[in-house]
Specification:
Keywords: ATP-binding, DNA replication, DNA-directed DNA polymerase, Metal-binding, Nucleotide-binding, Nucleotidyltransferase, Transferase, Zinc
GO biological process, one term: DNA-templated DNA replication
CATH superfamily of the largest domain: P-loop containing nucleotide triphosphate hydrolases
Distance between the termini: 108 Å
Enzyme class: transferase
Structural class: alpha/beta
CATH architecture of the largest domain: 3-Layer(aba) Sandwich
Family: Belongs to the DnaX/STICHEL family.
Catalytic activity: DNA(n) + a 2'-deoxyribonucleoside 5'-triphosphate = DNA(n+1) + diphosphate
Number of helices: 28
Strand order of the largest sheet: 2-3-4-1-5
């Protein structure tokens, strides 16, 4: 028979052979023993934690000739056929390669047929999160009310991708990652059964590289055994798994502790040249410093070391570190690990992390040793005095009542004085103002507002054009602050002028003015003879009547008519008396 990998040969065939997952095994065994099994199960968890193995064992126990029993016998014809994969009533379905709705409909059509040789027809759907939405919808009704002889077992590594309607119809079991001790114990069992000598430190390195997955651990063990030959060595395990030796960890940690950044970077460069992945190096260093912190704070928990071996040199190194330093280094490496995910230059991030770790203590020491500067002391004293004065004013009650309006008035005066009113430019526009120009701007005003960015159009919510000449127009603002913001925003001015020229066909330069100032300038212009009042008999012949907006000109005007004329222009408004 051809050689088979360890993870296939030593796949558990009973619940007792499964490593860990006690909460899953006990629940399923009790359900089998007391005949309280349900129609749908969801097994979720990281890869290599026993989901598919548990599903097969459960399928065997359901159909075992010795049922009801907490374990399959593995001797009857049903158990043997399921182990061999020849039982037609236990169907394994890979959703990763059969995700379309057509494949799911084919399963649903066969569900109603009774099992050929077994008590239950068991469907094991692996990687169920890969099914399409249509396939999930097709499965939904059958999963909710299947025939009595059918059991569905769904397995996934990403349960968050499943619709909630599917999850709610299943009994969910969350498989946990295996601990390093569980993985090492399982590998020892495998090696002893295969009569292969082993080194427990080698097995720890393999367990660390497996990251909680039993299948990954047994695959790496298979590689190390094949590479080593007669005896597994530490160097072989480091080479196969891509890990680094503990001596290299010692070298870099001591270089960082002695602030020898040159030595630390040299050792890092050597590791990268040897083919080590910087992302993996960051993870290993986090684990190594975690082990140092563990031994420093709890020396009796040496069994919980994940990466390092407990030896005198490691214990001595742990005593040289401050706990705060290790906490800081772990934090720096964790942030670096997150940043590496978005970059192809991972080596640079690792080098930067080493530099940060060497310099991490400098700011803290300078704060503790240096005396505060005289300027800082004076600033603190003045702030304390100000706080005392404010507290006293609050106690007195009346002191702040008159101060607030004065402060507000001063603030308004400052904001008003900050914007210089372009009186000369406004009067120039008024001298050359024409009715067609102001009408052209007002006609296209709503269109231009709709084309502006939201932040720009917000400045013009309470603004309106009130006068226009062939090359400029006066834009009146209700609030002074909006007027100042518009005049200072060059991006807004460029976009606004460009859009206005696009729709009117003429290049108008905006002249900004607050509401109160506009009324004064307009009245002064009329008083000085720039434009005669309406109905004046001496108005020059041919001069256009009111070529700019008459906002605020006559209080007798109907406000509704004025508002309509402001929005649509006088030529588009007709007033009818009832």
């Amino acid at each position: 028979m051809a050689y088979q990998a360890f993870y296939r040969v030593y796949r558990p065939r009973t619940f007792s052979e499964m490593t860990g997952q006690t909460h899953v095994k006990q629940t399923l065994q009790n359900a089998l023993l007391y005949d309280k099994t349900t129609h749908a199960y969801l097994f979720s968890g990281p890869r290599g934690t026993g989901k598919t193995s548990a599903a097969k064992i459960f399928a065997k126990a359901l159909n075992c000739e010795q049922a009801p029993a907490a374990e399959p016998c593995n001797e009857c014809s049903s158990c043997r056929s399921i182990d061999e994969g020849s039982n037609t009533d236990v169907i394994e379905f890979d959703a990763a390669s059969n995700s379309r709705v057509e494949e799911m409909r084919e399963i649903i059509e066969k569900v109603r047929f009774s099992p050929a040789n077994s008590r239950f027809k068991v469907y094991i759907i692996d990687e169920v999160h890969m099914l399409s939405n249509s396939a999930f919808n097709a499965l939904l009704k059958t999963l909710e009310e299947p025939p009595e002889h059918v059991v569905f077992i769904l397995a996934t590594t990403e349960p968050h991708k499943l619709p909630l309607t599917i999850i709610s119809r299943c009994q969910r079991f969350d498989f946990k990652s295996h601990t390093q001790a569980d993985i090492v114990a399982r590998m020892i069992t495998v090696l002893e059964d295969a009569k292969i000598p082993y080194n427990e430190q080698v097995l720890k390195i393999i367990a660390q590289a497996a990251a909680g997955g039993m299948r990954d651990a047994l695959s790496l063990l298979d590689q190390v055994v094949s590479f080593s030959g007669d005896e597994m060595t530490l160097e072989d395990a480091l080479l196969v798994t891509g890990s680094i030796s503990q001596d290299m960890f010692y070298g870099i940690a001591e270089a960082l502790l002695n602030k020898d950044i040159g030595q630390a970077l040299t050792l890092l460069e050597q590791l990268v040249r040897d083919g080590k992945d910087p992302v993996r190096l960051v993870e290993d260093f986090i684990t190594f410093f975690r082990d140092l912190l563990l031994i420093q704070t709890a020396p009796g928990l040496s069994d919980m070391l994940e990466l390092a071996a407990f030896e005198p040199r490691f214990e001595e190194l742990a005593k040289q570190f401050e706990a705060s330093t290790l906490y800081n280094w772990i934090e720096i490496l964790t942030k670096t690990q997150q940043e590496m995910r978005f970059s192809n230059h991972t080596k640079i991030y690792m080098e930067t992390a080493l530099l940060k770790m060497v310099q991490a203590d400098a700011p803290v020491q300078s704060i503790g040793v240096g005396a505060p500067s005289p300027e800082l002391e004076a600033k603190v004293t003045s702030l304390e005095q100000l706080v005392r004065e404010l507290q006293q004013q609050l106690k007195d009650g009346g002191g702040t009542a008159g101060a607030a309006p004065q402060a507000e008035q001063k603030k308004r005066q400052r904001s008003q004085s900050a914007f210089k009113i372009p009186t000369g430019r406004i009067q120039e526009v008024l001298k050359n103002a024409t009715k067609p120009d102001i009408q052209a701007i007002k006609t296209n005003w709503a269109t231009v507002m709709g084309q502006l960015q939201r932040s720009h159009s917000a400045l013009l919510n309470d603004a309106e054009p009130v006068a226009a000449s062939p090359d400029a127009f006066v834009l009146k603002f209700k609030y002074d602050i909006h007027c100042q913001m518009a005049s200072e925003n060059q991006t807004f001015a460029a976009a606004f002028s460009q859009l206005l020229e696009q729709y009117t066909g003429k290049a108008y330069t905006p002249v900004y003015v607050p509401d109160a100032n506009w009324l004064k300038i307009r009245e002064e212009f009329i008083r000085n003879g720039g434009l005669k009042n309406e109905g004046d008999a001496q108005e020059p012949e041919g001069q256009e009547e009111n070529p700019f907006s008459s906002d605020g000109a006559s209080p007798e005007e109907d406000p509704f008519v004025s508002e309509a004329e402001r929005l649509f222009g006088k030529d588009f408004v007709e007033v009818h008396d009832d």
